[in-house]
Amino acid sequence: MTGMSRPLAPHHAHAVLFDLDGTLVDHAAAARAGVDQWCVELGLPAGQWNRWRKIERRWFTRFERRQISHLGQRVERAREFLGRPDLSEEEALRLYERYLAVYRANWRAYDDARPALESALVSGATVGVLTNGALSMQTAKLERTGLLLDGVVVLAATDLAAAKPQPEAYATALARLGAEAAGSVLIGDDWINDVVGARRAGMRGMYLVREGLRRDRRAPVDEPVIASLAELEWAR
Ligand SMILES: [Mg+2]
């Protein structure tokens, strides 16, 4: 109970891993801007963010389960959203690129992201970003948002050959960092990928539920959450 009643006590960690989208960078705002502009360009009705989000989640989950490639989920998202299952892969990716251009232009770090990375680095911990996105895009995202600090290692699913919550994703990431699971922590906004999966891998998982967002129904009601990365404190 002590841990639950005092979630803000400084933590000891040898390795601190952060999720990227929804944790360090506001993915939802950028994706929403991307899809809104895409609809304008393609002459589609406005206000399709929720439909896009559901399609994204469904296909991205298939990628996480290794049922489809990373590029393949992009193709299928474009085909389904545009209602054009006949699109060739090439054509689907060409159209998807228009969404991505606006998505990229709208990348913004959360205000608490850089200070959180810096304080983890200052604590002497090994610091990584463990993301289910593609390595090239996620590295560019961190760079463009001022988060690719010296010492921060980018660990992306396309490079690890496994995505969260597959056990290999955490194990491979920790091996890259030269860190043990015990003594390592993952902080993220996805209950399954960042908390449950991390714990299954022997790490500590900390659940971030930013203001205005709902916690996952599968999370126990007494699970301590942080609403901001500013609540993190690392013991040296
Ligand atoms: Mg996330």
From TrEMBL:
UniProt keyword annotation of Cell membrane present: no
UniProtKB keywords: Hydrolase, Magnesium
InterPro entries membership: HAD-like_hydrolase (IPR051400), HAD-like_sf (IPR036412), HAD-SF_hydro_IA (IPR006439), HAD_sf (IPR023214)
Cofactors: Mg(2+)
Domain of life from the UniProt record: Bacteria
Pfam families reported in the protein's UniProt record: Hydrolase
Protein name: Phosphoglycolate phosphatase
Lineage: Bacteria, Bacillati, Actinomycetota, Actinomycetes, Mycobacteriales
